[in-house]
Structure formats: structure tokens, C-alpha cells
């Protein structure tokens, strides 16, 4: 079966909850199904919540969610959605990965929201496929899984695999499923229930337009920031940025002070440090490697700047990659 194939209702969907999963993305995937049932006046969708051991799972907001089953229980589902969030890249539970492979062998459609794609990739179930992932995780995911084509689209359907970047993108992915299975009229009605506006196409950008992110519209300032974003590993000089943005250095400095209340160099440094923090949290690359990847001349220089910005050192920030369930075989 492939995602969205018209099926005799109801479609049975499982949601596998990984500790620290994103409640926002989970609700955005589940609530449209409830609404579709209410609007249709019948059960188009049924769902079961699953955890590794059948016990409640705590989301990233510290709310514990009870589940219906464990991975040992028989599940009459045709689709499974892996719901993850914080630290999903560290989740290597071999029992769960084997379970996912068994579901695949049985013909179950497999999907993920937010960082749930890490589990499918660790299980080898995304090799040769395209998947959507949150923009913060794209670079580290690409390094860890070169056989997977990760994209910044809000969601991707690749045969019997479906993934979305998280947050409200899960709503658009489920509306897409409804449209394929039950028509645009129902999908639109569900979207209106959630005051969602137009149903977004998969190609919509994840991130807010730069003008809205920084609250400024000057084309020279926008061009300068885009240049900074594109050159984090090998930072450009302030003179080079100004020249490429069609500005003088003095104009560049005035624009940053007026619009962002900071210097261009400060803004550039903070961008590089934020990128470094993401790599520290999401990869096992050495501190020196990350320092170089973010344009710092040495690990000591990087550590000094990092401490000034975040109040801790890169090594202190990076907790041991402990995976409480990762080494269990059953």
C-alpha cells in the first residue's frame, strides 16, 4: 500500500511515541483525523498510540501521554507514524528498529513527524528515499545518513514513506492524505475547522521569509544577511559583505544598528555560534571539527566565544550520548 491509496474505511493508523516527542507536531497529525470523522459522520480513521513498553510516554513539554499498546502487541494498522522530538538522533533502540523493519516487511506504510525520520533512517528504511526534516536538523541528518535525500520541504511522500518537518506541517501532511483518500472537499472543511487557511503544498518553505524574521525590508540588509547565512564555514569580511550587497561599509553598519541594534560582526558571530550549538547537540563531531565548520580559527577561540554567548563551554553543553533504551535487544 502507498500513502493516500483509497482504502475501505476506516484507515487504521498507529502513532509510535518516542520519549521527548513534540506534542505540537503530534496533535497537528492526530486532530485532523478526529475532525474528519466528525465532519463525515462516520469513522474514516481509527488510531492507536504505541510505546516501546506500553507505558505512558513523556513529551518534550513534560506531559505524560498514556498509550494503547506496546510494540509486542498485535496492531491491525496499515500506517505507522513515528513521533519524535528532542534528542531523536540519540535514540538507537534495537528492539524498536527491528519492529519497524517487521512492519515494513508486512506492507505497512511508515511515516514520521518532526525528528521521527531519524528512527526510520537508523532502521535503514529511508535509504534511497527522500524525506522532510526540520530545518534545524537538515545538515546533521545529511551527514549521518548520506543514502537519504533530506529536503527542507514541509512534507514529502515517497511511495509508502511519508515524512514531515514537524509543527503545523503535520497538519498539511494529514490534509494531503485526506484529500487523496476522501477528496478535497473534506480536506478543506477540516482545514477550516482549524482556521488553517489554504492547505499548504509540500513545496512551501519551512522558514518564515527573512523580512518577517528580522522585521526589516531594506534590500541591502537582506542581501547582507543572506550572504552571512551562505558563508558560515568560511566567513566573509565585512568589506566583502558590503560590496556584494551593494553597500558601503558605513551604510552596512548603519543598517544593522538601525534595524537590529547590533553590529554586522556581532550578528554574523551569533549566527555562527547558533549553528555550532545545533551541531554540538545533534552530531558526534569533535569540538575542533565543529569550530572549523563554523568559521573559527581554533578550538580555544571557539570555546571562548561560545562561553561568552551561552554561559557554558561546548564540551559542557554536549551531554554523553546516553540512550536509555538503545542497547536492549528485546
Q: How would you describe what is shown here?
A:
- There is one protein chain.
- The chain is of the alpha/beta class.
- Helices cover 44% and strands 13% of the residues.
- The chain folds into 2 domains: 183 residues, Class I glutamine amidotransferase (GATase) domain (Rossmann fold, 3-Layer(aba) Sandwich); 108 residues, Homeodomain-like (Arc Repressor Mutant, subunit A).
- The strands form 3 sheets. The protein has a 7-stranded mixed β-sheet. A two-stranded antiparallel sheet has the order 3-4. A two-stranded parallel ribbon has the order 8-9.
- A hairpin with a 2-residue loop joins strand 10 and strand 11.
- The two termini are 28 Å apart.
- The relative contact order is 0.11.
Could you list the spans in which at least 5 consecutive residues all have pLDDT below 50?
321-330
Characterize the largest beta sheet: strand count, sense, and whether it forms a barrel: 7 strands, mixed
How far from one another are the termini? 28 Å
Mean pLDDT, to the nearest integer, reads 89
* Backbone structural class: alpha/beta
Compute the number of structural domains. 2
| Helix and strand sequence | EHEEEEEHEHEHEEEHHHHHHHHHH
Q: Determine the CATH superfamily of the largest domain.
A: Class I glutamine amidotransferase (GATase) domain
What is the CATH class designation of the largest domain? Alpha Beta
Fraction in beta strands: 5-15%
How are the strands of the largest sheet arranged?
A: 5-2-1-6-7-11-10
Rg to the nearest angstrom? 22 Å
Task: Give a count of the beta strands, DSSP E runs of length 2 or more.
Answer: 11
How many helices in DSSP terms?
A: 14
CATH architecture of the largest domain: 3-Layer(aba) Sandwich
Report the principal-axis shape: globular
CATH topology of the largest domain: Rossmann fold
Q: Helix fraction?
A: 40-55%
Task: Please identify the oligomeric state.
Answer: single chain
Amino acid at each position: 500500500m502507498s500513502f493516500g491509496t483509497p482504502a475501505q474505511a476506516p484507515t487504521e493508523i498507529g502513532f509510535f511515541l518516542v520519549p521527548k516527542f513534540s506534542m505540537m507536531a503530534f496533535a497537528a497529525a492526530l486532530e485532523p483525523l478526529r475532525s474528519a470523522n466528525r465532519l463525515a459522520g462516520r469513522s474514516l480513521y481509527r488510531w492507536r498510540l504505541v510505546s516501546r513498553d506500553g507505558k505512558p510516554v513523556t513529551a518534550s513539554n513534560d506531559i505524560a501521554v498514556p498509550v494503547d499498546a506496546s510494540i509486542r502487541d498485535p496492531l491491525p494498522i496499515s500506517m505507522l507514524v513515528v513521533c519524535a522530538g528532542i534528542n531523536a538522533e540519540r535514540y538507537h533502540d534495537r528492539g524498536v528498529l527491528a519492529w519497524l523493519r517487521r512492519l515494513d516487511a508486512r506492507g505497512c506504510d511508515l511515516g514520521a513527524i518532526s525528528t521521527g525520520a531519524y528512527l526510520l533512517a537508523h532502521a535503514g528504511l529511508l535509504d534511497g528515499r527522500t524525506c522532510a526534516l526540520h530545518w534545524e536538523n537538515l545538515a546533521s541528518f545529511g551527514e549521518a545518513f548520506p543514502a537519504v535525500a533530506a529536503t527542507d520541504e514541509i512534507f514529502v511522500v515517497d511511495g509508502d514513506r511519508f515524512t514531515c518537518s514537524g509543527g503545523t506541517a503535520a497538519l498539511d501532511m494529514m490534509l494531503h492524505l485526506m484529500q487523496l483518500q476522501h477528496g478535497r472537499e473534506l480536506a478543506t472543511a477540516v482545514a477550516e475547522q482549524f482556521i488553517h487557511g489554504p492547505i499548504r503544498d509540500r513545496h512551501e518553505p519551512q522558514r518564515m521569509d527573512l523580512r518577517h524574521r528580522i522585521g526589516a525590508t531594506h534590500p541591502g540588509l537582506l542581501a547582507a544577511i543572506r550572504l552571512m547565512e551562505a558563508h558560515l564555514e568560511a566567513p566573509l569580511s565585512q568589506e566583502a559583505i558590503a560590496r556584494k550587497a551593494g553597500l558601503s561599509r558605513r551604510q552596512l553598519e548603519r543598517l544593522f544598528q538601525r534595524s537590529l541594534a547590533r553590529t554586522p560582526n556581532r550578528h554574523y558571530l551569533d549566527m555562527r555560534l547558533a549553528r555550532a550549538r545545533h551541531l554540538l547537540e545533534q552530531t558526534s563531531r569533535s569540538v575542533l571539527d565543529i569550530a572549523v565548520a563554523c568559521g573559527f580559527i581554533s578550538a580555544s577561540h571557539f570555546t571562548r566565544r561560545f562561553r561568552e554567548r551561552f554561559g557554558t563551554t561546548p564540551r559542557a553543553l554536549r551531554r554523553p550520548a546516553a540512550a536509555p533504551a538503545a542497547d536492549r535487544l528485546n
